[in-house]
Amino acid sequence: MPDEQELAIGGEAASLVAAGYPFVSLREASGREPASGRVVRLVSPAGKWLAHAVADPGAGILWTIAGREERSFEEALAARFAGALRAREALFAGGATDAFCLFHGEGDGASGLVLERFGKYGVLYVYSRALLDVSELLARLALEEAGLEGIVRKLRLKGKDREEEVHENWYGRKAPGRLEVREEGVPFEVHLPGALNVGLFTDMREIRRRFGALSRDRTVLNLFAYTGSFSVVAAKSGASTTNIDLSSGALGWAEDNFRLSGLDPKEHEFAVQDALHFLKGASRRGRTWETVLVDPPTFSESRRGGFVYKRDFPLLVRLSMEVLAPGGLLWLASNMRSLRPGSIDKWVGQAAAELKRRIDVLEVFGLPADRPTPLSYPEGRYLHVLALRAS
User: Fold this and answer.
1) Are 328 and 228 in a shared domain?
2) Most buried in the list 19, 65, 89, 276, measured by CB within 10 Å?
3) Is 369 exposed, middle or buried (0-12, 13-18, 19+ CB in 10 A)?
């Protein structure tokens, strides 16, 4: 990489960098504004080394990269990746799981980059165009050190920068269109080429395991079922599942996942329908389930007018309680970073009061151990899941 430009930062910005915060404002740095994607050295006003960073003038930030080791950028990135590999080897030593997060940028030392492993292949998500050059270094490093046969890099932009077209580049060998991976011994089909999402959200692994254990021999309603991973683990525990999703393709994929586990999808219900519409109809007909899972997308264009989380989630909670049997379990999941703490609790409390139902919290879940985040960056802990019991 070219010679690194030096930028000085002080005060709170320097403290944040020292605490592992994933980015700082360019306004906090003194010196000539670097070009997009340029690796810079962050130092204190007195010239003391702080960290590497990558300039992103379009977003007005510096992505902190590779921690505080005073060495070349390439050496620092390699050291961080080696540390991440050692941590994952300890977590997944048994080999029963080969789908997990191999490198979680914010906690592993390269902000804006997330590398997930799916068998012998990897998916590298890049959250800014400014990080494309650095992501290529990480991809080639992972091919050499992690035993991967191929890696696909996908640009995952947010907000106004989001694009419909998926931009992907392959390094090493390209994965087959359909790939079978395992999560705690349970097989799932993933599709690495093409779409942004591959069919299995690895950040929900620990929740899936617990969901399966608490769904034994119950009737389960899985709203926004996607490829049916939660329903599969429930069905393996003897549950009878009802799976609702607007995508017929996703539900067909879910049926394939059932078959991979030796389960007959004909013994379960699959319906291509809007979740809110389905719940209203089920409530009118007096249908109930012993377990209801609500895991909506943050935003979806699939519904007329779009599914808007903060607008529609409270109604989802209310309608889900209406079809929940006495003593039933209600699972609520959110991956919305901007959601205020306590919002879900508030919506649950309002619905419970209206329906005169008592709610007990059984368990609370967040991100698993393969997705570490700095203590200084609470907004990075985006996953919030509640397991509730209703009287």
Assistant:
1) yes
2) 65
3) middle
